[in-house]
Amino acid sequence: MATGIITKDHAVPHTSTNPANLNESVELFVREYDGTKPSHSSEAVLMLHGRSIPALPGFDLEHGRHDKYSWSKDLADAGYDVFIMDLQGSGRSTRPKMKNPCNANPAQQQDILVPNPLSAPCSPDYTSQLNNSQSDWDELDTVIKFIQHQSGVSKVRLIGWSAAAFVMGPYAVQHPQNVESLLLLAPIFPPQGRASKSGTDFGAPVALPVSTPAALFGFPMNLGTKDAFASSWDRELHCANQREPGMVDVVWDATMDNDAVGSGWGPMEDGVAQGVNRIRNSYWWGWNSATVPLHGTLGGDVPVCIVYGELDTQANTPVASGPLLHFSVPALYEAIPGTKKLMFRVACTGHLMVWERQSKFLHHMSRQWLKQGTVEGLSSGSYFRDEDGVIMPAG
User: Fold this and answer.
1) If we measure between CA atoms, which residue out of 250, 285, 332, 217 comes closest to residue 68?
2) What range(s) does the AB hydrolase-1 domain occupy (predicted)?
Protein backbone atom coordinates (compact mmCIF):
# COMPACT_ATOMS: atom_id res chain seq x y z
CA MET A 1 0.00 0.00 0.00
CA ALA A 2 1.04 3.60 -0.60
CA THR A 3 2.96 5.45 2.09
CA GLY A 4 1.25 8.76 1.35
CA ILE A 5 -1.85 7.99 3.43
CA ILE A 6 -2.40 10.42 6.30
CA THR A 7 -4.10 8.83 9.32
CA LYS A 8 -6.01 10.92 11.85
CA ASP A 9 -8.31 10.02 14.74
CA HIS A 10 -11.25 12.34 15.42
CA ALA A 11 -13.59 12.61 18.39
CA VAL A 12 -16.66 14.06 16.68
CA PRO A 13 -18.93 15.90 19.14
CA HIS A 14 -22.60 14.92 19.12
CA THR A 15 -25.64 15.75 21.25
CA SER A 16 -27.16 12.35 21.96
CA THR A 17 -30.71 11.49 20.91
CA ASN A 18 -30.29 8.08 22.48
CA PRO A 19 -32.75 7.72 25.40
CA ALA A 20 -30.00 6.19 27.56
CA ASN A 21 -28.11 9.50 27.64
CA LEU A 22 -30.55 11.91 26.03
CA ASN A 23 -29.20 15.40 25.31
CA GLU A 24 -25.76 14.59 26.74
CA SER A 25 -22.64 15.65 24.87
CA VAL A 26 -20.84 12.56 23.58
CA GLU A 27 -17.97 11.73 21.26
CA LEU A 28 -18.19 9.58 18.15
CA PHE A 29 -14.94 7.89 17.17
CA VAL A 30 -13.94 8.49 13.56
CA ARG A 31 -10.65 7.43 12.01
CA GLU A 32 -9.62 9.07 8.76
CA TYR A 33 -7.26 7.65 6.13
CA ASP A 34 -6.68 10.46 3.67
CA GLY A 35 -5.23 9.15 0.45
CA THR A 36 -6.12 12.20 -1.66
CA LYS A 37 -3.52 12.57 -4.38
CA PRO A 38 -1.69 15.87 -4.95
CA SER A 39 -3.64 18.29 -7.16
CA HIS A 40 -6.81 16.18 -6.76
CA SER A 41 -10.00 17.29 -5.02
CA SER A 42 -11.17 15.24 -2.07
CA GLU A 43 -13.55 12.31 -2.61
CA ALA A 44 -14.94 11.13 0.72
CA VAL A 45 -15.96 7.61 1.74
CA LEU A 46 -17.63 6.70 5.04
CA MET A 47 -17.62 3.10 6.29
CA LEU A 48 -20.01 1.87 9.01
CA HIS A 49 -19.80 -1.31 11.09
CA GLY A 50 -22.50 -3.89 11.79
CA ARG A 51 -24.06 -5.19 14.99
CA SER A 52 -21.12 -6.78 16.77
CA ILE A 53 -17.79 -5.87 15.13
CA PRO A 54 -16.69 -2.22 15.51
CA ALA A 55 -14.91 -0.12 12.90
CA LEU A 56 -11.61 -1.47 14.20
CA PRO A 57 -10.92 -4.26 13.24
CA GLY A 58 -13.89 -4.42 10.85
CA PHE A 59 -12.43 -2.14 8.21
CA ASP A 60 -8.79 -2.07 9.27
CA LEU A 61 -7.29 -5.25 10.69
CA GLU A 62 -3.85 -4.07 11.75
CA HIS A 63 -1.86 -7.15 12.63
CA GLY A 64 1.48 -7.49 10.87
CA ARG A 65 1.09 -9.40 7.65
CA HIS A 66 -2.68 -9.28 8.03
CA ASP A 67 -2.68 -5.59 7.09
CA LYS A 68 -3.73 -6.86 3.68
CA TYR A 69 -7.23 -7.19 5.17
CA SER A 70 -7.55 -3.41 5.62
CA TRP A 71 -10.39 -2.47 3.29
CA SER A 72 -10.20 1.17 4.39
CA LYS A 73 -6.50 1.55 3.64
CA ASP A 74 -6.94 -0.12 0.26
CA LEU A 75 -9.51 2.51 -0.69
CA ALA A 76 -7.31 5.31 0.66
CA ASP A 77 -4.50 3.91 -1.47
CA ALA A 78 -6.82 4.40 -4.46
CA GLY A 79 -6.98 8.12 -3.68
CA TYR A 80 -10.04 8.42 -1.46
CA ASP A 81 -10.41 10.29 1.81
CA VAL A 82 -11.73 7.37 3.87
CA PHE A 83 -13.50 7.66 7.21
CA ILE A 84 -14.53 4.77 9.45
CA MET A 85 -16.84 5.37 12.43
CA ASP A 86 -18.23 3.78 15.57
CA LEU A 87 -21.80 4.46 16.62
CA GLN A 88 -22.49 4.96 20.33
CA GLY A 89 -22.22 1.67 22.17
CA SER A 90 -19.54 0.29 19.83
CA GLY A 91 -15.77 0.39 19.62
CA ARG A 92 -14.16 3.63 20.74
CA SER A 93 -17.27 5.82 20.79
CA THR A 94 -19.15 6.67 23.98
CA ARG A 95 -20.74 3.56 25.51
CA PRO A 96 -23.62 4.65 27.75
CA LYS A 97 -24.90 2.18 30.39
CA MET A 98 -22.41 -0.49 29.26
CA LYS A 99 -19.71 -0.26 31.93
CA ASN A 100 -21.84 -1.96 34.59
CA PRO A 101 -21.82 -5.75 33.96
CA CYS A 102 -25.28 -5.96 35.58
CA ASN A 103 -26.60 -4.20 32.46
CA ALA A 104 -25.74 -7.22 30.34
CA ASN A 105 -28.46 -9.56 29.10
CA PRO A 106 -29.57 -11.39 32.29
CA ALA A 107 -29.86 -14.65 30.33
CA GLN A 108 -26.12 -14.49 29.53
CA GLN A 109 -24.68 -13.40 32.86
CA GLN A 110 -24.35 -16.78 34.60
CA ASP A 111 -22.55 -18.50 31.74
CA ILE A 112 -20.32 -15.61 30.68
CA LEU A 113 -19.78 -13.15 33.55
CA VAL A 114 -19.74 -15.41 36.63
CA PRO A 115 -17.24 -15.45 38.31
CA ASN A 116 -15.50 -12.67 36.33
CA PRO A 117 -16.45 -9.89 36.94
CA LEU A 118 -19.64 -10.94 38.76
CA SER A 119 -19.89 -13.25 41.75
CA ALA A 120 -23.56 -13.86 40.90
CA PRO A 121 -26.10 -12.64 38.33
CA CYS A 122 -27.66 -9.24 39.02
CA SER A 123 -30.45 -7.05 37.71
CA PRO A 124 -29.85 -4.22 35.22
CA ASP A 125 -29.98 -0.68 36.57
CA TYR A 126 -31.17 0.48 33.12
CA THR A 127 -34.04 -1.68 31.94
CA SER A 128 -34.43 -0.67 28.30
CA GLN A 129 -32.73 -1.18 24.96
CA LEU A 130 -29.73 1.02 24.25
CA ASN A 131 -29.88 2.57 20.78
CA ASN A 132 -32.62 2.83 18.18
CA SER A 133 -33.01 3.65 14.50
CA GLN A 134 -33.48 7.39 15.01
CA SER A 135 -30.47 7.76 17.29
CA ASP A 136 -28.33 5.81 14.80
CA TRP A 137 -29.53 7.95 11.88
CA ASP A 138 -28.77 11.09 13.89
CA GLU A 139 -25.23 9.93 14.68
CA LEU A 140 -24.58 9.04 11.06
CA ASP A 141 -25.85 12.48 10.03
CA THR A 142 -23.51 14.21 12.51
CA VAL A 143 -20.51 12.36 11.10
CA ILE A 144 -21.52 13.02 7.49
CA LYS A 145 -21.79 16.74 8.24
CA PHE A 146 -18.36 16.57 9.91
CA ILE A 147 -16.94 14.94 6.76
CA GLN A 148 -18.59 17.49 4.50
CA HIS A 149 -16.91 20.25 6.48
CA GLN A 150 -13.61 18.40 6.88
CA SER A 151 -13.22 17.38 3.23
CA GLY A 152 -15.17 20.12 1.51
CA VAL A 153 -17.50 17.69 -0.26
CA SER A 154 -21.25 17.95 -0.74
CA LYS A 155 -21.90 14.22 -1.01
CA VAL A 156 -20.29 11.21 0.66
CA ARG A 157 -19.93 7.66 -0.68
CA LEU A 158 -21.35 5.26 1.93
CA ILE A 159 -20.17 1.70 2.63
CA GLY A 160 -21.95 -0.43 5.22
CA TRP A 161 -21.41 -3.97 6.44
CA SER A 162 -24.12 -6.27 7.78
CA ALA A 163 -26.51 -4.47 10.17
CA ALA A 164 -25.15 -1.12 8.97
CA ALA A 165 -27.87 -1.53 6.33
CA PHE A 166 -30.46 -0.64 9.00
CA VAL A 167 -28.72 2.73 9.36
CA MET A 168 -27.33 3.66 5.96
CA GLY A 169 -30.25 2.37 3.86
CA PRO A 170 -32.98 4.48 5.50
CA TYR A 171 -30.58 7.42 5.85
CA ALA A 172 -29.95 7.42 2.10
CA VAL A 173 -33.68 7.38 1.38
CA GLN A 174 -34.26 10.31 3.76
CA HIS A 175 -31.16 12.37 2.83
CA PRO A 176 -30.19 11.64 -0.78
CA GLN A 177 -28.68 15.12 -1.07
CA ASN A 178 -25.84 13.92 1.18
CA VAL A 179 -25.19 10.53 -0.45
CA GLU A 180 -23.20 9.93 -3.64
CA SER A 181 -23.68 6.16 -3.69
CA LEU A 182 -24.29 3.20 -1.39
CA LEU A 183 -22.33 -0.06 -1.19
CA LEU A 184 -23.67 -2.73 1.16
CA LEU A 185 -21.67 -5.82 2.12
CA ALA A 186 -23.76 -8.73 3.43
CA PRO A 187 -26.66 -6.41 4.29
CA ILE A 188 -29.15 -7.51 6.92
CA PHE A 189 -32.61 -6.97 5.44
CA PRO A 190 -35.88 -8.32 6.89
CA PRO A 191 -38.50 -8.02 4.10
CA GLN A 192 -41.27 -7.98 6.73
CA GLY A 193 -39.20 -6.07 9.28
CA ARG A 194 -40.53 -3.77 11.96
CA ALA A 195 -42.64 -1.01 10.43
CA SER A 196 -42.52 2.68 11.26
CA LYS A 197 -45.42 4.54 12.86
CA SER A 198 -47.43 4.87 9.66
CA GLY A 199 -45.91 1.86 7.94
CA THR A 200 -44.68 3.97 5.04
CA ASP A 201 -42.37 6.50 6.70
CA PHE A 202 -39.56 6.50 9.25
CA GLY A 203 -41.30 7.63 12.44
CA ALA A 204 -40.74 5.60 15.62
CA PRO A 205 -43.49 2.96 15.92
CA VAL A 206 -43.60 3.05 19.74
CA ALA A 207 -42.60 5.30 22.60
CA LEU A 208 -38.89 5.18 23.32
CA PRO A 209 -37.01 3.72 25.08
CA VAL A 210 -38.40 0.21 24.67
CA SER A 211 -38.43 -2.05 27.73
CA THR A 212 -40.93 -4.79 26.93
CA PRO A 213 -40.79 -7.67 26.53
CA ALA A 214 -38.08 -7.56 29.18
CA ALA A 215 -36.40 -10.69 27.84
CA LEU A 216 -35.63 -8.80 24.61
CA PHE A 217 -35.44 -5.10 25.48
CA GLY A 218 -35.08 -4.83 29.27
CA PHE A 219 -31.31 -4.31 29.17
CA PRO A 220 -28.84 -2.27 27.07
CA MET A 221 -26.10 -4.80 26.34
CA ASN A 222 -25.68 -8.27 24.85
CA LEU A 223 -22.48 -10.28 25.15
CA GLY A 224 -20.33 -12.11 22.62
CA THR A 225 -17.64 -14.65 23.47
CA LYS A 226 -14.62 -15.83 21.55
CA ASP A 227 -16.00 -19.37 21.39
CA ALA A 228 -19.30 -18.17 19.93
CA PHE A 229 -17.47 -15.99 17.41
CA ALA A 230 -15.28 -18.92 16.33
CA SER A 231 -18.22 -21.31 16.04
CA SER A 232 -20.23 -18.86 13.96
CA TRP A 233 -17.34 -18.33 11.55
CA ASP A 234 -16.46 -22.02 11.38
CA ARG A 235 -20.01 -22.92 10.32
CA GLU A 236 -19.54 -20.93 7.12
CA LEU A 237 -16.26 -22.56 6.09
CA HIS A 238 -16.83 -24.95 3.19
CA CYS A 239 -13.98 -24.27 0.74
CA ALA A 240 -10.28 -25.04 0.84
CA ASN A 241 -8.15 -22.08 1.95
CA GLN A 242 -11.25 -19.95 2.50
CA ARG A 243 -9.66 -18.50 5.65
CA GLU A 244 -6.04 -18.28 6.71
CA PRO A 245 -4.99 -20.25 9.81
CA GLY A 246 -5.07 -18.33 13.08
CA MET A 247 -7.50 -15.67 11.91
CA VAL A 248 -9.96 -16.21 14.77
CA ASP A 249 -7.25 -15.28 17.27
CA VAL A 250 -6.11 -12.32 15.17
CA VAL A 251 -9.61 -10.84 14.84
CA TRP A 252 -10.64 -11.53 18.43
CA ASP A 253 -7.47 -9.99 19.84
CA ALA A 254 -7.94 -6.90 17.66
CA THR A 255 -11.56 -6.59 18.79
CA MET A 256 -10.51 -6.78 22.43
CA ASP A 257 -7.83 -4.14 21.81
CA ASN A 258 -10.69 -1.72 21.18
CA ASP A 259 -12.59 -2.48 24.37
CA ALA A 260 -10.63 -1.81 27.55
CA VAL A 261 -13.62 -2.84 29.71
CA GLY A 262 -14.94 -5.93 27.94
CA SER A 263 -11.43 -7.31 27.43
CA GLY A 264 -11.19 -7.79 31.20
CA TRP A 265 -14.42 -9.78 31.52
CA GLY A 266 -15.22 -13.44 30.96
CA PRO A 267 -13.53 -16.82 31.46
CA MET A 268 -9.94 -16.86 32.66
CA GLU A 269 -7.14 -18.70 30.87
CA ASP A 270 -3.79 -18.92 32.66
CA GLY A 271 -4.77 -15.98 34.82
CA VAL A 272 -5.80 -13.79 31.88
CA ALA A 273 -9.39 -12.93 30.93
CA GLN A 274 -10.45 -14.21 27.51
CA GLY A 275 -12.52 -11.08 27.06
CA VAL A 276 -16.15 -10.41 26.13
CA ASN A 277 -17.50 -8.42 23.19
CA ARG A 278 -19.99 -5.86 24.55
CA ILE A 279 -22.76 -5.52 21.95
CA ARG A 280 -25.37 -2.80 22.13
CA ASN A 281 -28.98 -3.99 22.33
CA SER A 282 -30.76 -2.25 19.45
CA TYR A 283 -34.35 -1.43 18.49
CA TRP A 284 -34.56 -0.89 14.73
CA TRP A 285 -37.45 -0.09 12.41
CA GLY A 286 -38.10 1.35 8.94
CA TRP A 287 -36.01 -1.08 6.88
CA ASN A 288 -38.33 -3.42 5.00
CA SER A 289 -40.00 -4.03 1.65
CA ALA A 290 -42.36 -1.08 2.19
CA THR A 291 -39.71 1.55 2.94
CA VAL A 292 -36.91 0.60 0.53
CA PRO A 293 -38.90 1.78 -2.54
CA LEU A 294 -39.92 5.13 -0.98
CA HIS A 295 -39.44 8.18 -3.23
CA GLY A 296 -37.65 6.01 -5.82
CA THR A 297 -34.36 7.09 -4.25
CA LEU A 298 -32.41 3.84 -4.02
CA GLY A 299 -31.23 2.73 -7.42
CA GLY A 300 -32.09 6.22 -8.72
CA ASP A 301 -30.56 9.31 -7.14
CA VAL A 302 -28.53 6.96 -4.96
CA PRO A 303 -26.98 4.07 -6.94
CA VAL A 304 -26.65 0.86 -4.91
CA CYS A 305 -24.16 -2.02 -5.10
CA ILE A 306 -24.69 -5.15 -2.97
CA VAL A 307 -22.11 -7.86 -2.33
CA TYR A 308 -22.58 -11.02 -0.27
CA GLY A 309 -21.07 -14.47 0.14
CA GLU A 310 -22.83 -17.57 -1.10
CA LEU A 311 -22.03 -19.24 2.26
CA ASP A 312 -23.48 -16.40 4.34
CA THR A 313 -26.00 -17.84 6.82
CA GLN A 314 -26.38 -14.60 8.78
CA ALA A 315 -27.66 -12.30 6.03
CA ASN A 316 -29.87 -15.06 4.57
CA THR A 317 -32.11 -16.94 7.00
CA PRO A 318 -35.19 -19.18 6.63
CA VAL A 319 -38.70 -17.72 6.37
CA ALA A 320 -39.53 -19.87 9.39
CA SER A 321 -37.28 -17.58 11.46
CA GLY A 322 -40.21 -15.15 11.69
CA PRO A 323 -40.78 -11.66 10.25
CA LEU A 324 -38.10 -9.91 12.32
CA LEU A 325 -35.41 -12.56 11.87
CA HIS A 326 -36.02 -13.68 8.30
CA PHE A 327 -33.28 -11.93 6.32
CA SER A 328 -32.82 -11.99 2.55
CA VAL A 329 -30.21 -10.17 0.48
CA PRO A 330 -31.94 -10.99 -2.85
CA ALA A 331 -35.19 -9.57 -1.43
CA LEU A 332 -33.41 -6.27 -0.80
CA TYR A 333 -32.18 -6.17 -4.39
CA GLU A 334 -35.70 -6.82 -5.67
CA ALA A 335 -37.17 -4.11 -3.41
CA ILE A 336 -34.82 -1.38 -4.71
CA PRO A 337 -36.95 0.50 -7.23
CA GLY A 338 -34.38 2.10 -9.52
CA THR A 339 -32.27 0.59 -12.29
CA LYS A 340 -28.91 1.76 -10.92
CA LYS A 341 -28.41 -1.34 -8.82
CA LEU A 342 -25.86 -4.14 -8.90
CA MET A 343 -25.61 -7.32 -6.85
CA PHE A 344 -22.84 -9.92 -6.62
CA ARG A 345 -23.09 -13.28 -4.89
CA VAL A 346 -19.52 -14.43 -4.33
CA ALA A 347 -18.44 -18.09 -4.20
CA CYS A 348 -16.50 -19.59 -1.30
CA THR A 349 -17.02 -16.84 1.24
CA GLY A 350 -19.45 -16.01 4.03
CA HIS A 351 -20.53 -13.16 6.25
CA LEU A 352 -16.94 -12.34 7.22
CA MET A 353 -15.66 -11.79 3.70
CA VAL A 354 -13.56 -8.85 4.92
CA TRP A 355 -11.10 -11.32 6.55
CA GLU A 356 -11.28 -14.18 4.06
CA ARG A 357 -9.49 -14.91 0.80
CA GLN A 358 -12.23 -13.26 -1.24
CA SER A 359 -11.50 -9.93 0.43
CA LYS A 360 -9.23 -9.31 -2.58
CA PHE A 361 -12.29 -9.21 -4.84
CA LEU A 362 -14.11 -7.00 -2.35
CA HIS A 363 -11.32 -4.43 -2.50
CA HIS A 364 -11.05 -4.67 -6.29
CA MET A 365 -14.75 -4.31 -7.04
CA SER A 366 -15.32 -1.53 -4.50
CA ARG A 367 -12.56 0.55 -6.12
CA GLN A 368 -14.31 0.17 -9.47
CA TRP A 369 -17.73 0.93 -8.02
CA LEU A 370 -16.59 4.09 -6.27
CA LYS A 371 -14.73 5.40 -9.31
CA GLN A 372 -17.02 4.39 -12.17
CA GLY A 373 -20.35 3.25 -10.76
CA THR A 374 -19.71 -0.06 -12.50
CA VAL A 375 -17.93 -3.35 -11.75
CA GLU A 376 -16.15 -5.14 -14.58
CA GLY A 377 -18.14 -2.96 -16.97
CA LEU A 378 -21.49 -3.92 -15.41
CA SER A 379 -23.81 -1.13 -14.29
CA SER A 380 -26.91 -3.07 -13.30
CA GLY A 381 -28.16 -6.59 -12.71
CA SER A 382 -27.60 -9.54 -10.39
CA TYR A 383 -24.54 -11.77 -10.85
CA PHE A 384 -22.65 -14.75 -9.43
CA ARG A 385 -18.86 -14.71 -9.21
CA ASP A 386 -17.44 -18.23 -9.08
CA GLU A 387 -14.28 -19.37 -7.31
CA ASP A 388 -12.19 -18.79 -10.44
CA GLY A 389 -13.37 -15.20 -10.73
CA VAL A 390 -15.79 -15.78 -13.61
CA ILE A 391 -18.83 -13.52 -13.38
CA MET A 392 -22.12 -14.74 -14.81
CA PRO A 393 -25.78 -13.72 -14.52
CA ALA A 394 -27.33 -15.05 -11.33
CA GLY A 395 -29.58 -18.00 -11.88
Assistant:
1) 250
2) 45-356
